[in-house]
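target protein:
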Amino acid sequence: MALNLYALVSVTKQLISGAKGGQSLLIDALNIWFTNIIVFALWFWNIDRGGPARLGLHDDKRPDFLFPQMIGTGDQDPTWSPGFIDYFYVAFTNATAFSPTDTMPLSAQSKLLMAVEATISLLTVGLVAARAVNILT
């Protein structure tokens, strides 16, 4: 994550100095945005209920995320547990909508992580949009 933040700061500095633009900016921004999603998906997966290594061993750990499969009346599978794709989806929708969609963060740490991810994503998208407006005018 630190390298991804460094890349975002570096791209921002280059944009301010006028050294970055066009295709190079778009590729850099996409790399930062997609890396952001992967990093936070892995992070979400590792904090929720003690991480993937602990899943199924003990049910005493409270979840950090409330997935739709965990709610309902009789139609949910009691043996279901989230996998990487579920956390990837959470990270992707958070980076796209800048907010949770169908999976709610329950713990303070999951809420803070989602806020950080959304902020990084918003800055990345904002930089590209600002540069695009600058190019068009």
In short: Strands lie at 65-66, 104-105.
